[in-house]
Design a protein that fits this description.
Methane Monooxygenase Hydroxylase, Chain G, domain 1; single chain; 3 domains; membrane; Putative membrane protein YccC; YccS_N; 28 helices; cell membrane
Length: 691
Amino acid sequence: MTWSRALKDTARAGLTVERTKLEPLVALRGACGVAVVIGLILWLGTPKLAVSSAFGAFASGVATFQRSWRPRPVLALGAAAALGLSTFLGYLAAADRALFALLLALWTLLAGLAWAVGPVTGVVASQMVACMLFTVTLPTSVLGALHHAALIVFGGLVQAALIVLFPIRPWGVQRDALADALAAEADYARRLRHDPVASFDPQPLMDARSAAALSPRQARKRPGQLGGPRGLAERLRPVLASLADPTLGAGAEGPERDRARELLAAAAAVLDAVAHAIRWGKPVRLPPEVMAALDVPESGPVLTGAGRRSALRLMVLLADVVEAADEPVQSTRPTTAEERHHLLRPSVPRLVPVALRALRREARRSSAIGRHALRLTVVVSVGYVLGSALPLGHGYWAPMTSVMVMRPDFGETYARGVARFAGTVVGVALAGGLVALVHPGPYVCAALAVACIGLMYLLMSTGYSVASACIAAYVVFLLGIAGEGWSQTVQARLALTLLGGLLALAAYALFPAWETLKLRDRLADWLDANGRYALAVLAVYAHPADRKPRRVREALLDQRAARLEWEEAAARAQKEPVRHRGISRGAERAAESALATMGRATMLMEAHLPAADAEPSPGAERFAGALREAMPEAVAAVRGRRKVTFAEPRKAYAAWRREAGDEGVAVRATELLLEAFDELAKALSPGRKRG
């Protein structure tokens, strides 16, 4: 993609207004938190203190809107505490420009590295830098700095208290995540009726697993509806795929295929009903015809062989899903041993060493997060120096714009840069024009600021340009509380916002971290994860008595994570104005299809794992041994742009097939696995033409 095309596409993405589900009550609660803080401090304190405290309430509210599975009050308190500390340290160094610039650079570097912990932490860390830049311009003493920091924390306390006192859809994000996973399974079942080898996006299942991780406090209060259906949904997916597969399930045509389609339609209806019940905390309601379709028919089309086993397993699992979800909304249950071991989310204090390890891991130049931190530090430092040197006043707007715009990847940074400037122009023009015409007093400015922030909370998910316009107007009215002249604010805001945006965009062009150059590494990681997943499943066929379900489960999760990393990398690479000489777009698509087929073939084997008392399979053991030896070389070949070969696993498979014939589920699924290997080798062949 050329630079002009990349800039055009990212600009369009930044200015796009999306339609999304609005949450007016949540937005109203957040705006009320800001209103309470500003009103109290205006009544009891000074306008400058009101401005400072307003940033704490505003930023804490923004933190609670981020995608996180932690309790909303914890997010509000954590954001407020971080902002208060940032403000206090900034005040201590504000008297000496050189010392403040050094502190700002260090703080920005840590904020950039904070993206290694997670996106919510990265957003809050960016707000910390922005708050440091803005609030230290309000003159005060060291004791006053403590007051400012305390008021910012107070803003977070108010937001947290409102969330506790006025809960809106408790456990709503967890309910939505689980409901989305079940709805995705329902959609998958419908698509399998028409396309027996339809693909499935595992992201909803991964989100549901993340949402199911609980802190000790959450584990004591979680509704019973959120306990069991997730694990059952995980087990449903391979059963649905094996039932629909024309090789390992129902026949491609005829009565068996009709029966399979009927079962898939019934499964979709059940999963949709359960998803609706979980999302809104209601009992499950199923039509009688759906229940009739899930009974074993006394006459008519029936399934045989592996297809029949899949159908019977599907019926049992669907009954378990309904039973697990059809519970009173307020019922709770103790956390199971499995959840205590696998899905226990660490408390905030115990998260500190985890975060420190993540920071150390990413604090290197070769890391995308590390490069982002360095890039952000340079841009903010240069923006601070230039903003202070220019005779515009309000020099903090330039570095503050940069820190709020910049993200670790090219596409989002450029899109946000364009959206930020466009939204700022609109917001400042409207708010500045209103201030110039009406000349509102402090209390009127406070009311207008609260209205703007409420609108921002409401429209926060519709697009960054809309949110930027609301924030720009909010800041204009907030400065009006402190007595800032509107004309000076407009001029400085527009000019320095443009400067900060241009610095951010130029920095990414001069110091990039292109995802395109890492595509082969992402493919190799996905291939490696696929291989480990296949080996874990084959180990059960080789020695059923020694089966370790947890090992298979962990390998599946690693495979899903590797696939998601590839998909995210490929999506980011499509927006970048560079081209990888080692792999073409056509080869990317072909390799992605081959690796997805590998994962699907292994999943089909997993759907028919033998019982613990089944006979061991020497053929599966020999094939697994050959695959284990071949995978490291294949992964290295993908990374090094060499020819990928799987000669030894193919020989082991041929011997296995001669012994077992072609009737075994594992044998037929392994054939699909080898066909996918061949597709991958062809896609990544050094002599392949670019597509």
